């Protein structure tokens, strides 16, 4: 919490603008859940070098190797129209004439279905955000107090998306679900702060915010710790469950953004509202 509300507001707003620029210019990678395509998974018993396979499929497919308790998995993702080329390169790499000689599975998602997933995911986030905004406004019936909560929640979402762009985390059905959870976490801490500030006017602004911070940061850091443990466990012991790792990572980014937006942006605007704007009205 900063004494100068201008600096307190400027820091998260600068990060918000940076996130918007990242999303606009760099974009966010999308999984086959969103774009459509084919995912081929091959289980192997040893940690083999797949560099030559990556080189042969450069700019055609995305390839990664995941470790699990029962061995290693080579995952190849490509556009549906490139499947035949990809399969041929895989057969050459493993020196087989048919893929069914390998411990192999294939998943294909059509463009129509994937676009439907994306459309429904965006609708879910939009409706959740709209209903959250309506509930917040009716709870406070104060345009400034409710507006800053809505702004903070929106900033959390955009900053999380900006971090996904920066660290190349794919937008998928799983990460869309994580973004839905972000709205709930954001509203929780911001309502805590705003309620304390507006209803405990007998105490000084700084004292009220400090009390709210003790509770709010305890909740936030508890959740961040849980997500960090999940991320470490997945990375070290079950890398094949990379969906869980992506969800945990997105939530960690969003919760860090929420700390900035709640205790700098929201607190800064409330400081101005309580100590200057409303004081002039009295």
Alpha-carbon distance between the two ends: 26 Å
CATH superfamily of the largest domain: Multidrug efflux transporter AcrB transmembrane domain
CATH class of the largest domain: Mainly Alpha
Mean pLDDT across residues: 87
Ranges where pLDDT stays below 50 over 5 or more residues in a row are none
How many structural domains?
A: 2
State the share of residues found in helices, binned by percent: 55-70%
Shape estimate: elongated
Query: What is the level-2 CATH architecture name of the largest domain?
Result: Up-down Bundle
Radius of gyration: 23 Å
Percent strand equals: 5-15%
Family: Belongs to the SecD/SecF family. SecF subfamily.
GO cellular component, one term: plasma membrane
Pfam families: Sec_GG (PF07549), SecD_SecF_C (PF02355)
Membrane topology: Multi-pass membrane protein
What does this structure look like?
- The chain folds into 2 domains: 5-31 and 112-281, Up-down Bundle (Multidrug efflux transporter AcrB transmembrane fold), CATH 1.20.1640.10; 37-109, 2-Layer Sandwich (Alpha-Beta Plaits), CATH 3.30.70.1970.
- Helices cover 70% and strands 11% of the residues.
- The chain contains 9 helices and 4 strands, in the order H-H-E-H-E-E-H-E-H-H-H-H-H.
- It has a 4-stranded antiparallel β-sheet with strand order 2-3-1-4.
- The two termini are 26 Å apart.
């Amino acid at each position: 919490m900063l004494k100068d509300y201008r600096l307190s507001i400027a820091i998260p707003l600068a990060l918000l603008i940076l996130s918007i620029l990242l999303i606009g210019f760099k974009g966010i990678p999308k999984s086959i859940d969103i774009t459509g395509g084919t995912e081929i998974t091959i289980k192997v018993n040893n940690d083999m070098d797949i560099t030559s396979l990556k080189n042969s499929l450069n700019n055609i497919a995305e390839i990664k190797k995941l470790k699990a308790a029962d061995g290693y998995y080579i995952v190849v993702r490509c556009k549906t129209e490139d499947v035949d080329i990809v399969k041929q390169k895989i057969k050459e790499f493993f020196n087989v004439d048919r893929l069914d000689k390998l411990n192999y599975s294939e998943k294909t998602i059509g463009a129509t279905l994937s676009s439907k997933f994306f459309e429904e995911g965006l609708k879910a986030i939009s409706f959740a955000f709209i209903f959250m905004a309506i509930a917040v406004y009716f709870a406070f019936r104060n345009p400034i107090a409710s507006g800053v909560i809505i702004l903070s929640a929106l900033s959390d979402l955009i900053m999380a998306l900006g971090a996904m762009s920066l660290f190349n985390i794919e937008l998928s059905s799983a990460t869309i679900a994580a973004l839905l959870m972000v709205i709930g976490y954001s509203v929780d801490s911001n309502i805590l702060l705003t309620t304390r500030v507006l209803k405990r006017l007998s105490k000084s602004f700084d004292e009220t915010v400090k009390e709210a911070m003790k509770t709010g940061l305890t909740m936030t850091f508890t959740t961040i710790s849980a997500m960090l443990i999940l991320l470490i466990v997945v990375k070290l012991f079950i890398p094949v469950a990379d969906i869980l790792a992506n969800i945990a990572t997105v939530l960690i980014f969003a919760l860090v953004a929420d700390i900035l937006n709640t205790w700098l942006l929201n607190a800064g605007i409330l400081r101005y509202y309580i100590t200057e704007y409303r004081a002039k009205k009295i």
